[in-house]
Amino acid sequence: MVTQTADNARNLPVAVCRALKVRTREGLAWELIVDKCPLCGLKHAHGGGVGPQPSYGERSAHCADRNQRGDYELVPVGGAA
User: Of the chain's two ends, which shows fewer C-beta atoms within 10 Å, N or C?
Assistant: First the structure.
């Protein structure tokens, strides 16, 4: 699925993700979970920052198959952040 938005001017595939608050050695942080990667179909996790709200946007996919590696736009479940 490719969408064109103001934040996705490069027409990147969209990866829908859910945000979880996790405890790290440094304190609380956001983890963004992509349950189904639009490039490879697998599950990936990305850091989402430490602020009061998770930080979505462009990320490099964590695909196991190097031929499928690329970038995608992280968006929250339910729509734009």
Answer: N
Query: What is the phi/psi pair of residue 48, to 5°?
Result: -120, 15
- How is 40-61 classified by DSSP, letter by letter? TS--EEEE--SSSS---EEEE-
- What is the spatial order of strands in the sheet that 44-47 belongs to? 44-47, 27-34, 14-24, 71-76, 57-60
Write the CA distances from 11 to 2, 3, 18, 20, integer angstroms. Answer: 6, 6, 21, 26
pTM recorded for the entire structure: 0.79
Residue 41 has pLDDT above 70, yes or no: yes
Nearest to 36 by CA among 49, 18, 54: 18
Q: What is the pLDDT of residue 18?
A: 96
**Quick one: tokens of 45?**
């996790």
